[in-house]
Amino acid sequence: MQFKLKSINSLAITMMLVFALVILFFSGFLDFPTAHSSIPSAYNKSLLLPKSASHPFKDLFGAYKSWDSQVGCNKFRHTHQESNNDSVSFSSLQDVFGEIKCSVLKIKHVAVLVKGWTWVPDNLDNLYSCRCGLSCLWTKSDVLADKPDAVLFETTTPPLMRKSGDPLRVYMDLEAGRKRSGLEDLFISYHAKDDVQATYAGGLFHNNRNYQLSSSKNNDVLVYWSSSRCLPKRNQLAKSLLRLLPHHSFGKCLNNVGGRNMALSFYPECAKDPNEPPKWWDHLHCAMSHYKFVLAIENTETESYVTEKLFYALDSGAVPIYFGAPNVWDFVPPHSIIDGSKFGSMEELASYVKALANDPVAYAEYHAWRRCGVLGNYHRTRAASLDTLPCRLCEAVSKKGGINAKPF
Questions:
Q1: Which residues of 204-220 are buried (b: 16+ CB within 10 A; e: fewer)?
Q2: Which of 156, 265, 267, 345 is deepest in the core (most CB within 10 A)?
Q3: How far is Cα 201 from Cα 312, in angstroms, rounded to an integer?
C-alpha cells in the first residue's frame, strides 16, 4: 500500500507541473520560436521587431525623433564602425581613390568623342580638370573634338581596325551579362574586373526630376512598384510578394491604379512643371517618397549588376525591398535595404515588412545611415559612378598615350 500511494503522489505532481507549463505557454510568458517566424540573421544585428502591440505611424520625422531617443547615431556608428572604415575594400568596386603616379600619364590633354546614339546624358559634356594637371574634354560634337584621342562607342561596335594615329577605341556595355566587342582598346562596364567601372549610382541618373520629397508616409498602402517591361521571371516574383502586401503598381506590369501615368493623379504636388506635358520620370522620386517601401527587382540577377532601380528608391527616402545582385551589400550603405533573398519565403518577407511598417524606431533604423553619415562602401560606389567617368577614362587613355598608342 505504501508503494502504491507513493506512485499516485508522483503522478499527481507530474500532472500539476505539466498543467502549469501549459498555462505559462499559452499566456505568452514562455515563447518558443518557430523555424518559419525567425528574422534572417542579416537583420538580427540591428533592432529586432517588437513582440508587443504595433504602433502605426505616418510622420517620418516623428519616427526619426523616436529613434534618436532610443538608439541614436553614436550607437549606430559603433555598430557599423567596421563598414565605415576607409581601409575596408571589396573586389566589387575599383579603387578610384587610389593614388596615381603622374609619371604614368603620357599626354596632358585628352579629348573623348562620344559617337553615335547613346543614352549617356548630354550634360556630361564638359571640359574637366582631372588629377596630375590632366585636362579632359568629353563631348558628342566632332567640331569640338576634331582630333580625339579616344572614341567612345556604346550602341554600335568600334571599327574593325585601328591604324597608327587613329583614336583609341572605347566600348561601353552597362547591361547585364556585359560583353566586350572584341575590337576595343578599353572596355567600360559595371564590373570591377573590366578596364573602367561605371556604377549606376550618382547624380546623372536623376536629371530633370521633382526632388520634393514627402515626410508623410502612407499607412494603408505600403509598397510602391513601377515596371513596364514585363519580364516573366520578374513579374512572377513581384506578383508572389505583392499579393501579400498592400501596394500601388504604377507601370504596365501588374497595374492596379487604373492605368499608367497615374502617379500625378495621386500626388499632384509631384508635377515638375504644370505648364509642360509630364514625363514618367519627372515625378519618380517625389511619388516614391510617399511610400515606406519600394520594390526594386533587377532584370537579371548577376554579380555587381546593381542598377538605378535600387538607387532611385534610396534617393527618394524609401526603404528598398531588393532582389538582384548577390553582392549588393558591397554597393549600398549598411542597414539601408531589405535583401529579399535572405528570407526563407515570401510570406516571411511580407510579415517582416508589415511589422517594420508599424515600428517607427525599427523603420527609422533603415534611414540612420544618411542621418548619421555612415556610408560604408557606398562612398566608393558613388565615386565609381557615371558622374566621374570622364576623368577616369581620360586617365586610362592618357596611360596608353591616346592617338600615339601603337595599334594592335
A1: bbbeebbeebbeebbee
A2: 267
A3: 9
Cα(178)–Cα(70) distance, integer angstroms: 46
- Quote the pLDDT of residue 274: 76
Cell (9 digits) for 376: 560604408
276 CB contacts (<8 Å, ≥6 apart)? none
Residue 331 · residue 92 · CB < 8 Å: yes
* 315 Cβ contact partners less than 8 Å away, ≥ 6 residues apart: 206, 285
Count of CB atoms within 10 A of residue 315's CB? 21
Helices 346-357 and 232-242 cross at an angle (nearest 10°) of 50
pLDDT < 70 stretches in the chain: 1-53, 83-89, 206-207, 408
Nearest to 95, CA basis, from 309, 330, 399: 330
Residue 187 identity: F
Pair type for strands 126-129 and 135-139: antiparallel
Judge contact between 151 and 170, C-beta under 8 A.
Answer: yes
Strands 247-249 and 223-225: parallel
Give just the sign of the alpha carbon dihedral 313, 314, 319, 320: positive
Question: Residue 300: its pLDDT value, please?
Answer: 94
Element (H, E) at 310: helix 308-315
DSSP 132-175: GG-EEEEES-TTTTSS-SEEEESSSPPPS---TTPPEEEEE--S
The CA–CA distances, whole Å, from 211 to 140, 302, 372 equal: 28, 30, 21
What is the predicted pLDDT for the residue at 15? 53
CA distance 339 to 356: 14
Per-residue pLDDT, 84: 62
Q: How many CA atoms lie within 13 A of 149 on its CB side?
A: 23
What pTM did the predictor assign? 0.85
Cα separations (Å) of 288 from 162, 251, 291, 309?
A: 47, 13, 6, 12
Cβ atoms within 10 A of the Cβ of 69, count? 9
The C-alpha cell at 380 is 566608393
Cell numbers linked to 204 = 546623372
The whole-number pLDDT of residue 89 equals 61
